[in-house]
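Progress note, sequence design subtask.
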């Protein structure tokens, strides 16, 4: 529905005139009302055609009204015929208006045949533009390789941008904007390809320019930008681009179909694109972003691709925004892998880049180690161990090291627990975790140190006493036992440890206390231990001479009057 509607509009205008002149005088008022209504419909039709870009206004300062979106593009720029600055030598290179009717390769062949018949030769720049408008990017670059000037450099960069979403030099597209506002579309596409959010705002102001592109360029540009816009949380703008295409066009284009699957959040449809190398990485990243599971091998591929993307960024790119967008594509495990690899890149060792990485690293560790109550996050702990220096640059991160030390202790990773806990004031809970880890690993030396440094910690006292029993260290047992809380659970644990060691080192007063426990939950276990001890003591019974009885009684009395943990 382009210029072919002009005859229809003229016919409508003639109908208005015929209706006005063909009425009888007696029906003048009624015909005037009918003509007014028809004129209003005609004006509405013209306004809508202008609004949709199907007609061009005759006045350069014509401003279209704002319009709401679903399926229609917001006209955020002037609708004049051209915004290219007069006298710009590159204006003809940036403008693809001459190729707006190109849709197929046959259109290109016809155009070339006509140009050759008329002039006998086609300038390389014009032929390259025709190739680009047809979607033949490699052929365009081959043609441009024969010349070396500003025009060829721009078209070479444009062909790379359209075919591979690569931006070797964004300054080329920045320079194009100096030749007219409509050329900002190319800069917007380049910025989005570098994951720069500024490109989204710029693109939103160039939607009318986008609509006037040749068919193949428009399809390719939309196929490139829709996944990027969705990835950068500009879904509405992505929908505006997709709305410019008929369903049949979307169905025939793999790129547009993929973009539609992303915008529809269609998991099954997105997974189908994992089979296509050109969009495999984007499909996997989208699945992760939408919370769908993906194969671990794809996660590694995403990290590798992200690293390559960072290394390809030009010097004047917005690296901070690009890295943030890349991290949004990965799950927590891959986040740490990417941050670890990024920290090793020499290109990111500038102070502002180190600050960015440490900021991102701290935010993710804080979420995984402090803001959740789930099991210990081994990926976070491992990443912290490998990039400890990165976090030490942030003085407010001490609580992260404490949490990591506690979780490492829970996992039985003693060396990591010590690494993270070194130099930090350990909490009571962290000390308990360290003691539990040392006991599980039979690290009695660590327990000796803890029992000296924090003897009042009940967990340390209990585990140190049990360790003293296992090592048959009476002095240590007496020292640690003085701080043991004599609750039922602790007493039962101690006598079971004493029975397991088989040396019966606990004082009789402890067993006397245990005998008075009537808690049915523990009673069977207590009876079993007491029976074992009685049998062991019976085997070692001795005969006391009559004359020695007074001395034995005095010894028993002294034992009863002493501290329960003093050794006999």
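Output:
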């Amino acid at each position: 529905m382009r210029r072919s509607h002009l005859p229809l509009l003229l016919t409508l205008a003639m109908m208005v005139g015929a209706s006005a002149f063909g009425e009888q005088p007696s029906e003048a008022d009624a015909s005037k009302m009918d003509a007014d209504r028809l004129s209003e419909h005609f004006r509405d039709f013209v306004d809508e055609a202008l609004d949709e870009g199907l007609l061009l206004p005759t006045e350069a300062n014509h401003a279209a009204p704002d319009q709401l979106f679903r399926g229609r593009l917001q006209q955020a720029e002037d609708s004049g015929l051209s915004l290219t600055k007069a006298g710009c030598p590159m204006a003809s290179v940036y403008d693809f208006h001459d190729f707006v009717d190109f849709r197929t390769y046959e259109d290109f062949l016809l155009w070339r045949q006509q140009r050759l018949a008329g002039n006998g030769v086609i300038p390389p720049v014009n032929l390259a533009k025709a190739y680009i408008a047809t979607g033949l990017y490699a052929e365009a670059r081959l043609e441009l390789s024969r010349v070396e000037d500003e025009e060829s450099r721009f078209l070479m960069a444009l062909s790379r941008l359209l075919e591979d979403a690569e931006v070797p030099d964004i300054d080329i597209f920045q320079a194009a904007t100096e030749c007219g506002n409509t050329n900002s579309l190319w800069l917007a596409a380049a910025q989005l390809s570098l994951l720069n959010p500024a490109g989204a705002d710029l693109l939103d102001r160039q939607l009318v320019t986008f609509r006037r592109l040749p068919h193949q360029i428009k399809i390719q540009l939309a196929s490139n930008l829709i996944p990027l816009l969705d990835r950068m949380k500009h879904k509405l703008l992505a929908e505006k681009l997709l709305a410019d295409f008929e369903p049949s066009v979307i169905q025939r284009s793999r790129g547009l179909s993929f973009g539609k699957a992303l915008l529809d959040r269609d998991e099954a449809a997105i997974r189908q694109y994992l089979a296509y190398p050109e969009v495999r990485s984007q499909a996997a990243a989208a699945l992760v972003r939408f919370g769908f599971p993906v194969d671990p091998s794809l996660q590694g591929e995403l990290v590798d691709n992200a690293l390559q993307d960072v290394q390809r960024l030009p010097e004047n790119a917005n690296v901070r925004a690009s890295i943030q967008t890349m991290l949004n594509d990965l799950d927590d495990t891959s986040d740490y892998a990417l941050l670890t690899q990024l920290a090793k890149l020499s290109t990111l060792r500038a102070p502002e880049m180190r600050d960015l990485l440490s900021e991102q690293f701290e935010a993710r560790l804080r979420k995984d180690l402090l803001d959740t109550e789930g099991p210990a996050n081994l990926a976070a702990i491992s990443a912290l161990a490998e990039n400890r220096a990165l976090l030490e640059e942030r003085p407010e991160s001490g609580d992260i090291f404490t949490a990591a030390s506690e979780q490492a202790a829970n996992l039985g990773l003693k060396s990591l627990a010590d690494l993270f806990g070194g130099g930090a004031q350990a909490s009571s809970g962290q000390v308990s975790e360290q003691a539990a880890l040392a006991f599980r690993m039979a690290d009695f030396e660590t327990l000796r140190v803890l029992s000296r440094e924090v003897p009042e910690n009940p967990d340390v006292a209990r585990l140190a006493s049990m360790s003293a029993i296992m090592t048959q260290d009476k002095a240590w047992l007496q020292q640690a036992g003085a701080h043991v809380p004599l609750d039922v659970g602790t007493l039962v644990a101690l006598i079971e440890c004493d029975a397991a060691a088989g040396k019966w080192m606990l004082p009789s007063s402890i067993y006397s206390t245990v005998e008075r426990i009537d808690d049915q939950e523990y009673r069977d276990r207590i009876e079993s231990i007491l029976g074992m001890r009685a049998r062991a003591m019976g085997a070692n019974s001795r005969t006391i001479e009559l004359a020695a009885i007074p001395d034995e009684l005095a010894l028993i009395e002294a034992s009863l009057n002493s501290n329960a943990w003093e050794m006999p």
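Residues 6-43, 49-54, 56-86, 558-563 have pLDDT under 50 and may be disordered. Work on this subtask will continue into the next period as scheduled.
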